[in-house]
C-alpha cells in the first residue's frame, strides 16, 4: 500500500474538511507516495519517535497531535520540532496527524473514552453548527435512478444510521434552449416540457464540492438545475465531546477510581463532590474546559475532560462533578482507534504501537 492510499482510508473516516480552523491535521510530511514499509501509531511525535520508526522499519507515522502546528520559518536543530522534522525528511518518513478531525466525529476520541468506562454513547455533547446541507435537483425521469445512485455512492443521503435517503416528486420542467446551447432533449428556440423528478437529499456541508462534481458528471442536461441549501437543523453528529450513560449508577468516589484505573491517571483533579450518584456522563478528550456549560445544560452528572484551569472548577456550582484526568491520559487510547480503522481495511498490514512515547507531564 502507498502513502496516499493510507491517507484516503484515514480521511474517508475522519474527513480533513472537519478540522478546526486553528488546527493543522493532515499529511504534514510527504514521502513522495512511497510504498509503505510499516506504520507507527502515536499520540505525540518527538525525536525518539522518529528513531523508533527507523528501528521498526516504518516509513509512515500516524499521530494524533500535529508535529507542525504553527508555521516553521526554518528547519534547524533549535528545538525538538525542527529536529524531528529534519530527521523525518532525511529518513524518508511521512507524517500524518489526525487531530481535531478525530475529535469531532461521532466515533472518535470521546466515543472511545465512553466505551473504555463501559458507558453507552447517546449524543454529541456540543454539535457543530451549519454542518448540514440539502441538495435539491431536477432530473429527467428516466435518468433519476442513475443520478440518485451516483450521489449515494458519493456519500450523499446519509442521515444518522440510515443511508440512501431521498425524497422524490414527479413534475414537469420547462426550458427554451438558445442557438448556442446543446440541449439533451427538445428543440432550440422552442419551449420544451419534460417529465422530471425533483430529488432532495441531505449531506454534510463538507461534501458539497464532491456532490456538485458528481451531479454535474452524471446529470444528462448541459446545464443541470440544482440548489445547495444550508440548514439550521440541530442534532448534527459532528462536534466535540460525547454524552453517555453508565449501565447502572455508581457513587462519585467509585467513578473516580474507575477513571484512574481505566485511563492510568495517577491522580485526578475534581470540583467539589456533589454527593449525587453518577449515571449520565459527559466526556471530551483533550482540552475540553470550554464545554463545561454544555455538560451542565445536558444534565450530565459528571464531566470528564482535561486541561482545566483553576477558575474552571468554580463553574459547576454543585450542578455536576468536574473531573480533569489529564490530557495524555484522555487521548492515548486513540492509537487503538487508529489500529482498528486500518487493520480492518488491510488485515496483513504492518502496524506498530509506539513504545517510546511518554506522558510529558510527571507527577510526584
Could you please describe the fold and organization of this structure?
The protein is an alpha/beta fold and 364 residues long. The protein has helices at residues 3-13, 47-55, 80-90, 100-104, 109-116, 144-153, 208-218, 252-263, 292-297, 327-331, 334-345, and strands at 26-29, 39-42, 60-63, 94-97, 120-127, 132-140, 167-176, 191-204, 226-230, 239-250, 269-270, 278-287, 302-306, 321-324, 351-353. The strands form three sheets. The protein has a six-stranded mixed β-sheet with strand order 5-10-12-13-14-11. Strands 1-4-3-2-15 form a five-stranded mixed β-sheet, with helices on both faces. The chain is globular. The protein starts with a helix and ends in an 11-residue tail after the last strand.
From the N-terminal CA to the C-terminal CA, the straight-line distance is 45 Å
The computed structural class is: alpha/beta
Mean pLDDT reading: 95
DSSP helical segment count: 11
Low-confidence parts lasting 5 or more residues at pLDDT below 50? none
Give, in order, the helices and strands. HEEHEHEHHEEHEEHEEHEEHEEHHE
User: In percent, how helical is the residue content?
Assistant: 25-40%
Strand residue percentage: 25-35%
